[in-house]
Design a protein that fits this description.
Strand content: under 5%
Helix content: 55-70%
Oligomer: single chain
Structural class: mainly alpha
Radius of gyration: 25 Å
Largest sheet: 2 strands, antiparallel
Shape: globular
Number of helices: 18
Length: 339
């Protein structure tokens, strides 16, 4: 069963809700403008997303709309001018709320994501780190949270960490960002492996991965295979990639081929093995298959990116036919049928 989300949502949970609400095609376009580590983090957030109530979904979308509106006004005339303009339009309370959300979003403090982590859980992840790294993390936490972690460290380590906090000076931003990235990944991995692999958010993640480019898809799945093998297996069972076209029966393949341009098909087949190619040829007339082979031969060398994009467009056709009930796709190697 899906776990319910708490009444008060974190920024990461809100981001995951918003991405699911936008839909996989829009999310795939957003991912193209993000760094690889950002894409991986967001896909994990979607995967561990629990049951979202209609009110939580509406409030999250409304908050995002307010922030976009306030950001536009702020960019034109500054914060105080924006506050006045928004106050005239929405009233003082609403204006302050909208502006404050933008200001808070723009002023994300280092290790802000750690501040809602249980001290005992955080301790288990950082106690084996270098004393300087521990000191840097604790210096950015709330005093009570830092105290709880410091108290839990081995006795011989406490004094050394405390000393390094006391003498700590300026730390290069790139060092902070790297430590943040590693720690956030560790915490995300822990949350996934503590039982969230069965959460309904996995289906939302699969929807997104079915729309991203093949390179991004492969990178994410390879990372998950290394860090969360059980989750990766579950995702792969629900995924449909171009090579899975051999899972379709002949009638379904023929329906797909009728929807696909021959030039697009020739480009897509340049990147697959003989098994997939032969299965396609068998579902075409002799004349059509001969022409397709000639197109592939005359095409010459092609960019991998173009091949993957053509494959993804054909997968989109398969998904549309499946959603319309015109074909049935069996996934996961078993008898289960997803319709």
């Amino acid at each position: 069963m899906n776990r319910n989300l708490p009444a008060v949502l974190t920024k990461r949970q809100k981001a995951a809700i918003l991405l699911v609400a936008l839909g996989p095609e829009a999310v795939a376009k957003l991912f193209k403008h993000m760094r690889e580590d950002e894409v991986e983090a967001l896909t994990l957030d979607i995967a561990r997303l629990g049951k979202v109530t209609p009110d939580q979904r509406r409030q999250t979308i409304a908050e995002f709309h307010d922030m976009c509106l306030a950001q536009d006004v702020i960019s034109e005339g500054g914060i105080e001018e924006a506050r006045k303009a928004l106050e005239a339009a929405f009233g003082a309370d609403k204006a302050n709320e909208m502006v404050n959300r933008v200001v808070q979003a723009l002023q994300v403090l280092p290790f802000d994501f750690v501040k809602k982590t249980d001290p005992s859980q955080l301790l288990s992840f950082i106690q084996d780190e270098h004393p300087q790294t521990i000191a840097l993390i604790l210096s950015h936490l709330n005093p009570n949270q830092a105290a709880a972690v410091l108290s839990g460290l081995p006795q011989e380590l406490r004094a050394e960490v405390a000393r390094r906090i006391a003498i700590m000076d300026r730390t290069p931003p790139e060092v902070i960002r790297e430590i943040e990235r590693v720690l956030e990944r560790k915490l995300s991995t822990s949350i996934i492996t503590q039982g969230f692999t069965a959460v309904g958010g996995v289906k939302s993640l699969v929807e997104v991965l079915n729309w991203v480019d093949r390179t991004t898809e492969k990178t994410i799945l390879e990372n998950l295979t290394d860090t969360c093998p059980d989750l990766a297996d579950e995702i792969k069972k629900l995924m449909f990639v171009f090579e899975d076209i051999i899972l379709l029966d002949d009638g379904s393949i023929q329906k797909v081929l009728r929807e696909v341009d021959s030039k697009e098909l020739a480009l897509a087949l340049k990147g697959v093995g003989e098994e997939v190619q032969n299965r396609i040829y068998r579902n075409m007339s002799d004349r059509a298959s001969t022409m397709l082979k000639e197109d592939m031969e005359f095409m010459g060398p092609v960019r991998l990116r173009n091949v993957e994009e053509a494959q993804q467009r054909i997968v989109g056709v398969i998904r549309r036919l499946e959603e319309n009930g015109e074909i049935v796709v069996a996934r996961g190697g078993g008898d289960e049928v997803i319709v």
